[in-house]
Amino acid sequence: MSVTGRVSCTGRLMVQAVNQRGRSPRSPSGHPHVRRPRSRSRDSGDENEPIQERFFRPHFLQAPGDLTVQEGKLCRMDCKVSGLPTPDLTWQLDGKPIRPDSAHKMLVRENGVHSLIIEPVASRDAGIYTCIATNRAGQNSFSLELVVAAKEAHKPPVFIEKLQNTGVADGYPVRLECRVLGVPPPQIFWKKENESLTHSTDRVSMHQDNHGYICLLIQGATKEDAGWYTVSAKNEAGIVSCTARLDVYTQWHQQPQSTKPKKVRPSASRYAALSDQGLDIKAAFQPEANPSHLTLNSGLVESEDL
């Protein structure tokens, strides 16, 4: 302490560098560690400084399973893959590379989905398909089997039994019937004159079964029902039509000769289950039903008496 009352002392200050990983080690001699200059960043422009890049092996995020496609149809195989750098994709069929052509197309959508499209599919396209994704980090792949089903042999519709011209007494039920076959089973369309019959009603109804039998049933025919009727059958292989005329006659109200009721003579038609209540649809469409066993009500008259 000096005479003036001031106090002083001396000492040595050491500064030690600290980085993000902790304190730097002291040098063996006890002197402070000398920090090396930082390496320049990528943006420093030093082209000679090595830059470490990161790579990721391809990984499939989406891949299809085995497929069965009918010959002549379209087949589409979609997949999605990740990786760095962006992987390159190649397709193989039974180990042989697939080259793009008019029937085989390879597309990439904006969402990163890769597609192999085959149209039309042929029998030679059947086999094991392999998709291989490759980049600098490696490669990955998936496989699937494509089965090509034989194309169904199409046959145009053919009428086995055609419509027949028919007459009926006013107020009685009548049927127009035919049978048509085709592969695949054809669609059926009815027309009266130039008017299409698109749906059934309580009085006029359209029926068909799995054996090609077709029936247009009119309950209580009137003069307005008379005319030309056309039925058409259409499938992928073609279309066929036939036409018949329906006549509606006015009934003759005569004094009955006897009290014994008259019955309609059964016909060989599968639609013979007619009564004054109309057509028994269940009986009409049972192939095993014998028309001669069908019981008819007494409200019908002999067809030759019309």
UniProtKB/TrEMBL annotation:
Pfam families: I-set
Stretches with biased composition (Low complexity): 21-31
Residue ranges occupied by any Ig-like domain in the UniProt entry: 58-149, 156-247
Native species: Phyllostomus discolor
Keyword terms of this UniProt record: Actin-binding, Cytoplasm, Disulfide bond, Immunoglobulin domain, Phosphoprotein, Repeat
Protein name as it appears in the record: Palladin, cytoskeletal associated protein
UniProt superkingdom: Eukaryota
Keyword Phosphoprotein listed: yes
Region Disordered: start-end pairs: 18-48
GO cellular component: Z disc
Record flagged with keyword Cytoplasm: yes
InterPro entries for the chain: Ig-like_dom, Ig-like_dom_sf, Ig-like_fold, Ig_I-set, Ig_sub, Ig_sub2
Subcellular location as annotated: Cytoplasm, Myofibril, Sarcomere, Z line
Gene3D superfamilies cross-referenced by the UniProt entry: Immunoglobulins (2.60.40.10)
Higher taxonomy: Eukaryota, Metazoa, Chordata, Craniata, Vertebrata
Family assignment from sequence similarity: Belongs to the myotilin/palladin family.
GO molecular function: actin binding
